[in-house]
Amino acid sequence: MSHKSNSLKQLALQKFKKNFWGVFSFYFIVFVGVVSVFAYVFAPDNSQYANQMHLAIHSKKPGFKVTMLTIPSQIEADQSGFDKIFFGRKNTDTETPISDYSIKEGVLIYKEYASDGLEGSEKTILINKFPNHSVAQFIKEKTFLFGTDKYGRDLLSRVLVGARISFFIGFVAVFISLIIGVFMGSLAGYFGGKVDAVIMWVINVTWSIPTLLLVIAITLALGKGFWQVFIAVGLTMWVEVARVVRGQIISAKEMQYVTAARALGFNDYRIITKHILPNIMAPVIVISAANFAAAILIESGLSFLGIGAQPPMASWGAMIKDHYNYIILGKPYLAMIPGLCIMSLVMAFMMIGNALRDALDVKG
To answer: Where's the ABC transmembrane type-1 domain (predicted)?
Structure first.
């Protein structure tokens, strides 16, 4: 039996490897996962939430370059290396875009950047404010590859940090939906009768409520925030898993191996967890991949409505909300870049779901 199981797994893996788009989607999802975990390592702006604002250079086009003066702060940020890598750097320094500067008699004279042909104000600062009285290392040319948003924040950094929410909401929501869905579906399918009737009534009532409306209601009940959205999305996605598990168990419980397990005196818990569930996981895996994509879209919709991840936290949906009106103002990339990120990640999960469905199809 073990040899046969291993053979089926190897066969499914071989079929999956032959699917180009499935394999491509898998590596793309792994790439996005690595980027989302180590977002602050890759982001040009590694401050917390990539929230370094420069209103003087707001809404600049991709590839925009500017000279940036960093004025060091006297306040030391107490932060570990682990905290900097995974949660961003607590930035106490002041960054100022400048258009020109000169040094005279121990004083740095600089002119603040101003767009649209305007003249920036001229300011001075003593050289001794800088460590070792060295100014050169604090004046650097900065390039914004994706441009800047309406608050003058680096759009590339916001996209990278925003990937964390969109990626991990899939894992949390699918995990919650699997726990509830497999439990409820197993009870309904295995025991039948009144247990099945009650659970199916709950499933049908939950199914009849529009998903986004139900998520909004749960979010408002739990409060606005990061984890609240994750839990709310997960609590609305279990019905699909429960219906699939119920249908599969109704078919599987009449099989000979289940009858043999009952004859050997195994209890219902062991029969369900050790014998039935391992043999019906293929369709559950496929629907989980689809739920990943659905969770990303729901979170983006919530953030667009303003009840998802709250500012200054970066979220692709919130970025579209902030800049959708720029589409008609000649700067559509501000909304299109995060929109394309959502589209590509959702499409990757849908394609890997299709590839898994084909690979796990025994008849195929």
So the answer is: 163-353
Sequence-ordered strand ranges (E) for the chain: 64-71, 94-104, 107-112, 122-126, 139-144
Tell whether 39 is covered by a domain.
no
With both helix axes pointing from N to C terminus, report the angle between 155-191 and 193-208 in degrees, rounded to the nearest 10.
150
What residues have CB less than 8 Å from 199, skipping those under 6 apart? Answer: 184, 185, 187, 188, 242, 246
Please indicate, yes or no, if residue 299 is contained in any of the structural domains: yes
**pTM of this structure:** 0.87
Indicate whether 333 belongs to any domain. yes
Tell me the Cα Rg of the chain: 27
| Full pLDDT tens readout for the chain, 364 residues | 444 555 777 888 888 899 999 999 999 999 999 999 999 999 999 998 999 999 999 999 999 999 999 888 877 777 888 888 888 888 888 899 998 888 888 888 899 998 877 788 888 888 887 777 678 788 899 999 999 999 999 999 999 999 998 888 888 889 999 999 999 999 999 998 999 999 999 999 988 888 778 888 888 888 777 788 888 888 888 999 999 999 999 988 888 888 898 888 888 899 988 888 888 888 888 898 889 888 999 888 888 888 878 888 899 999 999 999 998 888 999 999 999 999 999 999 999 988 988 888 755 5
Give the closest residue to 109 by CA, choosing from 94, 119, 99, 118: 99
Displacement of CA 279 from its chain's centroid (Å): 31
Q: How many domains does the chain have?
A: 2
CA–CA dist 309, 237 (Å, integer): 19
Domain hosting 125: range is 52-152
C-alpha to C-alpha distance for 49 and 65, rounded to whole angstroms:
22
- The Cα–Cα gap between 200 and 277 comes to 19
